Amino acid sequence: MHKLLIANRGEIARRIIRTAHRMGIDTVALYSDADAGAPHVREATQAVHIGASPATESYLDAAKILAAAKASGADAVHPGYGFLSENAVFAESVIKAGLIWVGPSPAAMKAMGLKDTAKAVMKKAGVPITPGYQGTDQSLVRLERAAAQIGYPLLIKAVAGGGGKGMRSVNDAAAFAENLLSCQREGAASFGNPGVLLEKLITRPRHVEVQVFADKHGNVVHLFERDCSLQRRHQKVIEEAPAPGLSDNLRNMLGVAACAAATAIRYEGAGTVEFILDLDNTDKAGDPAFYFMEMNTRLQVEHPVTECITGYDLVEWQLRVARGEMLPAHQDAIQVTGHAVEARFYAEDPETGFLPSTGTLKTLRFPAGQGIRIDSGVEQGSEISPYYDPMIAKVITHGADRSAAIDRLVAALDGCVVEGVKTNRAFLARLVDHAAFRAGDIDTGFIARHGDDLATTEAAKPTLIALAALALAREGTTTSAEGLFARLGNWRLNLPYERHIDLFGADNVAQTVVLRDEAGKQRLDGPGFRMLATSRWLDDVNFEAELDGMLHRAVVLVGADSVEVRVGARVHRFARRALAADARGLASDARVAAPMPGRVLALDVAVGDSVAVGDRLLVLEAMKMEHRLSAKLAGTIAAVHVAAGDQVADGMLLVEIEGIPA
């Protein structure tokens, strides 16, 4: 292997490039129109343009990728994850072209490619599977009959699905048909296959997966497990390794079952065997029952946490196995050191149901330090476009134990600074700092169950108010400043120092802090508190203050209109001036706009209809997922500006509601 073509983009392309170059292998990057200036294009040995921005015209076009491999002189192809990484037909075409395929055999991919056939293979191999229906008869009548036999609640899953797409939970027969059609549409749009399977819904499940590796010489090992239970809409949000709270016996059984699954299909390369743990079904020892869910025949997004605890480079293992080498380590040599946690840092808005946020990353800064790893496909100035997954970075931390890794992750998230798009940063910080997560009390319903805790910003405490006021008072006086007034601090000729700072919270009411000089320090008089302080900027975002003898450090972001204070998982944003009603969003509830470019998949209202808060107005398809837009205001539909099937632009007005008078 001398030149590796990476049939992917963004973060995973950069990840593969780093390891390949370290191993002395040249790389070829691919790029669409939208990615012409992307970092992975610049970092590869060479790059080939393969088409327009939509993935179907570039990264999903197998013919263009093979042509690029031939034109560039590549002798191997690494698919990364997503796109064509689990497409057995693409793997076959790569091998037929005389190239090295960095992945499992097409036969193994086919065996695991569809959830229904995969479960049949696992059942034969003695790996436990979840009760359900995996039949080929996909008629509504047959599926409804199967659902009744399984019993509610149940899960509908696209047989070719992944990443949470094409999956719905159904609580009763009345909701079955609508959810079935939605899954079939999403499966067809995302995977070209509308087929579904049905499964008993495990009501309190944990999602635990095992990293396996196999070579061409019959060796199979596992690199322990990861817990991926913290999910939203079946998409992973937080991953950690090893999984907390498992007994040694259960940990061993999961590893053995995963290796048996890989052996059954003569697997080669990196793979992940995913299991569901049923917390409501335990044995005498207290260990939950576990069931095979699916096998991902590729490297996983969350592979860095496994690398952190084992010390192995999994991309290097992939490349060595693809070259025909034996696995770099035997099972007894693979040990766990410490604990690692990963957060998926996305351009999405938690306040609008986590809809993706597109735009230019005007500012992008990541933290650095011991035990912190950032895997990102973007840089300052990059565009988060509507064409691809809106991930900004994976923020990964490693510590001596789980508590240390979590502490480090909270601090690392505080150090992520982004301007230009909405992000889930504060949500992630609250999530990993939640007392129940720290205690290991987790299952896949965690985020929904603790939604109020995770969505609500707590009332500003005196410490946060004081830090915001002090930061504004010292705005522009960083340690590197050389100006006269920066050096003199608060002193002014012939005038006693006094400053009034107004901070406005969500209620738009001013909280006034008065700062005065007192004995070489500053006296702060604020709403319900009085304290003596000294403060300084450590750099342009890190701020330090001593408040009544207690030292506090925070990340403080000062903008023209607001100041944001981050202390641990606590974050508070203050406006610097009163906001008009429209700016506070009081009028915007009546005007429903498109949160991103997309297509109107379904329209549920017409002019004159009455709606209550929470009623579905329409379904927007964007980034190959369905996004429900609901009424935030009770009233009557005054205007509808779109029809089903319409393409809409970001910010386009869709529906107007005339509110009910108070």
From TrEMBL:
List residues of the ATP-grasp domain: 119-323
Specify the Lipoyl-binding domain's residue ranges: 581-658
The cofactors it requires, by name, are: biotin
Domain spans labelled Biotin carboxylation: 1-452
- Mind telling me which Pfam families this protein's record contains? Biotin_carb_C (PF02785), Biotin_carb_N (PF00289), Biotin_lipoyl (PF00364), CPSase_L_D2 (PF02786)
Superkingdom of origin = Bacteria
> GO molecular-function annotation terms?
ATP binding; ligase activity; metal ion binding
Keywords carried by this UniProt record: ATP-binding, Biotin, Ligase, Nucleotide-binding, Transit peptide
Entry keyword annotation includes Mitochondrion: no
The family database entries (InterPro entries) matched by this protein are listed as:
ATP-grasp, ATP_grasp_subdomain_1, BC-like_N, Biotin_BS, Biotin_carboxylase_complex, Biotin_carboxylation_dom, Biotin_COase_C, Biotin_lipoyl
Q: What's the protein called, per UniProt? A: Methylcrotonoyl-CoA carboxylase
**From which source organism is this entry?**
Glacieibacterium arshaanense
